Amino acid sequence: MSELRQDPTTYDWVIIAKERAKRPHEFKQSEALITPPPLHSKDCPFCPQNESMTPPAEAVYGTPDDWKIRVVPNKFAALTPEGDTIRNEWKLFRKSHGYGRHEVVIETPVHNQYIPFMDDVQVENLIKAYRDRYNALKKDHNIKIIIIFKNHGWAAGTSLEHPHTQIVASPIVPPFIRRRYEIATQHFDNTGRCLYCDLLKSELEASERTIAERKFFAALHPFASHYPFETWIMPRMHSSCFGNIVDIEIEELAPLLKEILLKLYISLGNPDYNLIIHTAPVDDERKTYYLWHIQIIPRLTLAAGFELGSGIYINTAMPEATAAFMRDVEV
Amino acid sequence: MSELRQDPTTYDWVIIAKERAKRPHEFKQSEALITPPPLHSKDCPFCPQNESMTPPAEAVYGTPDDWKIRVVPNKFAALTPEGDTIRNEWKLFRKSHGYGRHEVVIETPVHNQYIPFMDDVQVENLIKAYRDRYNALKKDHNIKIIIIFKNHGWAAGTSLEHPHTQIVASPIVPPFIRRRYEIATQHFDNTGRCLYCDLLKSELEASERTIAERKFFAALHPFASHYPFETWIMPRMHSSCFGNIVDIEIEELAPLLKEILLKLYISLGNPDYNLIIHTAPVDDERKTYYLWHIQIIPRLTLAAGFELGSGIYINTAMPEATAAFMRDVEV
Q1: In chain B, which residues have their Cβ closer than 8 Å to the Cβ of A230?
Q2: ipTM above 0.90, yes or no
Q3: What's the pLDDT tens digit per position in B257-292?
Q4: Among the partner residues A156, A158, A304, nearest to B274 by beta-carbon distance
Q5: What phi and psi values does residue A284 have, to the nearest 5 degrees?
Q6: Where are the beta strands (DSSP E) in B28-77?
Q7: Which of A53, A104, A241, B127 has the greatest number of beta carbons closer than 10 A?
Q8: Which of chain A's residues have a Cβ under 8 Å away from the Cβ of B175?
Q9: What is this structure's pTM?
C-alpha cells in the first residue's frame, strides 16, 4: 500500500509509492551516459577568451584577465530592466511589461569543473557572489523577489554545460511563494514560532531523513519529498533572507554543499539536477515566519498528467531509504 | 521586451518571452524522431490476446472476445482501495494510507491507433467510458476528486505506447485544486457569475486565441498559456462536473477532440503530450463556480529551476501566434 504524505510548508500531498519504490541504488544512471566535457571549449560563451560572447559583466571576481567568477546579464533574458511595472487589464486578462533582471553567474573559468570538484574557497566565493548580487539587485525598489537557481544538465533545462547559476529578479511575488508565506504566517500566529524552524527541529528529532548536521546547517530528505533524492539544506539559526548570510556560515555551507553534491554525483552518476535558493520576498525579509533554504531536485523522473492535473506528486523513492543511502556514500 | 501575464483561474504569472519566442512552425519535431509503432505487439499488456497480463477488467465495451475499450485496474497503482483514509500525525508530519483507485482505460485494441485516427464512434465511446468510470468511482464516499488524464509519449511520462488513459480517484482534494475553487468562488461571490464562463466569453470576444467554436464547445490557447501550444477545450454551457456530460455533447466533442489532436499531430510531428480533464471535487459538483474542461499540454519544453522555484512559467511561444497557426492547419 502506498502512503499519502502532506508537505507542512505548502499543504501539498505526495504519494510515496512504497511497493513501486525503487531502492536507492537503482536510480543510478549507467556510466555510458556520462561523457566528461573538456576543460575548455572554444565555442562556449562562458569560457575564458570568449568574454565578448556575453554582454559586459556586472561583476567580476579575480582580475579581468584571470577571473574566477563572472556575473553577466543573461543574453536571452526572461525579464529586462525596461519599461514599467504597471498592470494593464482588459476584462479578466491582466498583464505587464516583463520588467526585471536576469543574470548568469559563471561559476568558474574551467568548462568542466562542477561544484563538488572546486576547492572550498571557490565555492565560498561563489556563495558570496550570490549574496552580493542578491543585495545589489534588491536595491531596485521595483524588485519584490529574487530567485537564485541552477540548472545542471539537459533534463534540468540547461543548454550550456559550462557551470553556471542564474538569478532572476522579479517585480511580482507569485502565488507559489505567497502561499508558503501564508501557511508560515498562520503557523507563527498560532504558535509564535517559525514553521521551518519547527520543521527542522522535528526532522532532526526523527533523524531518519537527516543526512548531515553541522553547527549552522543541516541537510535532509524531507518527509514529503516530491522527488526521489530531493535534498534540502536548511540554516539552523533563524534567518528568512539569504542576503543576510554571514561569512562564518558560508565557510561551513561551502564544504557541506560540495559534499551533498558529490554524494549525489557518486550515487546517481552525475545526475541532472536543479538547485534553488528559496528566500523571503524582499519586503518580507524582516519577518520571522520564513527560513531561507536550499532545495536540490535531481531530475530522475518526469511529471506526468497526474502531477500536472492535480499537483499531487508520485515519489517512487522512500526519503528514509534515500537519506540512509546518502549518509553511507563515502566521499 | 517580454510580457508578464496572469492566469485568471490561478493568479499564477507566466512570462511570455516574446523576443525569444519561436515561431509556431519551429516547434515541429523532425520526422526522423517518429517511428510508427506496429498494429499489434506481442509483448504489450494492452493488446488483444494479452488480456491475462492485466488485472481482471472493471468494464469492457464490445464483447470479451472482440472488445473495443477495456478498463482495468492499474497493475502499478498509485492508490488502492485498501485500509482507511484516517490521517496520522506526528508533530508537523501528517500522513495516511494511499487509499483510492487507479484505473487504466485501454482506448482501442489497435496498438498504434491514436485518437485522431480512430473513427468518431470509437472516440464517442471512449468519452462515454470516461463518464461511466467517473460516475462509478464516485459512488465510494471516501473519494473526493477524480482525475482523468492521458500521458502520450515518453516526455509526457508514459512507458507504454499502446493508447491508454488513466483515472485516479483520490480521497484528498489537493491545494492545487482547492485554490482554483477559492478563486472561482470569490469571483462568483463578487459577480454572481462563473469565472470560467466569463473567461470563455472574453476569449471568444477577443477571438485571437480561439481555434474552434462549436455549439457546445470551444477550443483555444489561453491568454496566460503556461506552455507552447497549451490547448483548452471548454464547454459553452455551464457545467462543473464532467460526469454530467450528455450524449449530444459527446457527439460534438469527439470529432472536435480528434481535430485538435490531429492539428497538434500534424503541426508538431506527433508530439508527446498530456491531456487532463479538470472537473469539480465530487462534493462540489452542484456548485456553480467551476466549469469542467480539457487541458492539453504538448511536452515541448522542460520546467527548469526557475519554474520549480517560483511557479512562474516561461512560455517561449505567443498563444496568439500558435492559435492562428492551429486554425490554419488543414485536417
Answers
A1: none
A2: yes
A3: 999 999 999 999 999 999 999 999 999 999 888 999
A4: A304
A5: -110, 10
A6: 59-63, 66-73
A7: A104
A8: 10-12, 179, 311
A9: 0.97
